[in-house]
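#struct-pred

JT: dropping the chains for the assembly here, can someone run the whole complex?
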Amino acid sequence: MTSEAPADDRHGIPAFVVRVPAGPYRSLNPVTKLVIALSEVILAFAIGSWSGPILVLAVVLGCAAIAGILRPLWVIAAVTLPVVVSILLVNTFLYPGAKDPIITVGPFAPTWTGLAFGVQVTIRLLAASLALAVAYLTTRTDDLLTELERRGLGRRSTFLIGAATETVPRTITRAGEIVDSQRARGLDTEGSWWKRARGVLPLAGPVVFGALTEVEERTMALESRAFSAPGRRTMIRHLPDSGVQRWFRRALIAVLGLIVIGRVLGALRWVP
Amino acid sequence: MSLTLTAVGYRYVGTSRPALAGIDLTLAPGEVVGVVGANEAGKSTLCLVAAGLAPATIGGRLDGAVTVDGLPTAQAHPYELAQRCGVLFQNPVTQLSGTAPTVWEEVAFGPRNLALPLTEVVGRVDDALAALAIAELAERDPARLSGGQAQLVALASVLALRPAYLILDEPTSQLDPQGTRLVGEALSRLVAGGGTGVLLTEHKTDLLWGLAGRVVVLDGGRAALSGAAHAVLADDRLAAWGVEPPGRVRLARTAEAAGVALPELAA
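RK: done, full complex below.
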């Protein structure tokens, strides 16, 4: 969600380029959202056994509610379900040294200790992954890269991140085209697992070799557009930042540093 | 002032057979030189060598000399050459940066790399879009353009660097007839504007008939024939070199075989 800012009349930049992120939470500077997300990830693993992950999960869901992205967040949470289930099963049934069985059925003895540990790990992982998901869902990639480049990130790193995020959907599209063309030539990619597995080889070859060929063409195209010129690139967009956000980021990083040091020194054992 | 290739030969890394041999070619500002030839004749290699990308970017061995306005390409950085000699390849998808959310920002990619003042960047982008009459695409997502539109955006991105010479490597080969027409019209406008020297390799000889002043036929990496465009494109040996003559030449020949002389078609 962006609002079309007025055109930069001083330089003649069109309004659709000047675009500024709009809406609650989304309008925060991308670096602020990045710092919040990374802090949440670290805190989910650094504080206590239950309080840290639960607190972070609550904050993450609060941010998501403010940004109005609870629905897509549930979808992402649902994607993590297989991992969550496997963590719960492995810990509940195989937690080493646990002697408090919930029930014993033959050789199987799920334990309360294992279940508690599994739930705790699950909340941590969920809090961390959803924290990153909130940042992703509320920040356009080009906004984040613009801001990081303005703060000194090199043009190669900026391009690498931007191109990598673009590569995934393009590769998926290309793979779909190749599957279609292989099917048109009689390759059976539906049905049993064996048939699907056999269909991977004729797909993987063109995708991988096509991508490698593209790398050379892209390199030459970039060189022909002065990508290797020295110095910093001209910035055409400036995303708003504020004194409050700057102080908030500094305070968050300072608190985070203290918590990590406290954790390393064992001063946070009292936290539940 | 010219793009000059003198006795140029080139071998790709790991090969013993030269992809180009004994090529002499001069491209003056405002001139359009067409290059034709069968597949593997050396057309794309000629483009890479003329632009200074081979061997600078892809390695290989270059013999002879390539100079752009007196500057030997072997001694220049790719970003210096980019401002003198723009290159457009066959596949529009691989030429776009893939990182710009709008066409306007895609075209600004090159000028931004040169760290030009913001006002200069804006001016160059607007000029490049206007030169190809694609200003209405400025707000569009480059990833959602048709092939012809994407190729025009790629060309505008090159033009924004304001090179004195343009090297176009079969720019319409992956385009449908509509895309080919779009690019052809844009090139006609560009050429009519004058000033920019264009080296254009093409299988579509009809396009060259209307654009090029001179044409070079490549065969096995060597210049088999070179001369005025209409004379070369009407040469009887063209088919033997794997090049299809323009439609009007074929029509004139068919008419002649039927006893009807249409010399004005092939002139």
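JT: nice. Chain B touches chain A through 48 residues (CB under 8 Å). The two ends of chain B are 31 Å apart (CA to CA).
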